[in-house]
Hints:
CATH superfamily of the largest domain: CorA soluble domain-like
CATH topology of the largest domain: Beta Polymerase, domain 2
Largest sheet: 6 strands, mixed
Helix content: 55-70%
Number of strands: 6
CATH class of the largest domain: Alpha Beta
Order of helices and strands: EHEHHHEEEEHHHHHH
Number of helices: 10
Number of domains: 2
Amino acid sequence: MSIFVYPSVNSQQAVPAEDFGAALTDNVVWIDLLKATPEEVATLEKTLGIALPTREEMREIESTSRLYCEDGARFMTTPMLFSTESESPESTEVSFVLVRRFLLTIRDVEPQSFRQTAAMFSRRVSASRDQVFVSLIEAIIDRQADLLERLSKETEELSQRIFRRVPRAKESESNLREAIFQLGRSGNLIARERDCIVSLSRLVQYAGHEDFDDAGDGPTSPIYPRLKPVSRDLQSLSEFAGFLSSKVNFMLDATLGLINIEQNSIVKIFSVAAVIFLPPTLVASIYGMNFDILPELRWHLGYPFSICLMIISVSVPYWYCRRKEWL
């Protein structure tokens, strides 16, 4: 089954849809839906008196579809990266609903942040809705920060590999080509992470908006002071993600520039070689003409003379190119 309630005596046991009403004891503040079936969603909607967002609505990118109030409840949806320890983190949509004294979460995956928060509150006898919500947001932020730290470390190591001197041009170009793929992967993850951070920042601001108080305690939201440090953390992560994005773009431009330098060096070698061997080619072409009358045609020293002339015509351009440091 996919309905969990926290805190609960049977902390890690799912609640069947038909027993959901009985499971809502006075100490329950967190209702967690994991891959909920239509029957389970209908049971929750009937019990809580609200309409839960569908999967299609959770994937909407408009702010009005992700953040809204309806029937005395506050609905908030944000994209989130999970499996951040792996080489290829994935994204999913998670919805948070603040309704009366309950926090309702809707998700299709099991991120580490949810498991940590669930394990923490399953051991508590009592907790408030705001405590669970803030702790869950903080756990999510910690996981996102861990991902940015790992990307920062990988980017720094990659930067040292890119800008180190390699004696062999072939080996250098091979490393640079591999660096482009790694930079593309890191840039993609950072862009996805920035999108999650921006969306999460909007969610936190909306959750702590002072004009909304579903507990009926006045115009000031009681959760607002607890979300201030969270907002500052998100702002710091957003700035750091922007710095990483700029660094990745710089490294990508530098890598492409270094590859162009390597390729231009190869082209320059062929160009200089063509210039060096042009004069002896001209000499050989002159004495290869099929005319009956040539001054050196029947000269006994004609062949050594032409060879020496070609060697001299090669040496002079070669010496000039070395002096100009073209080679």
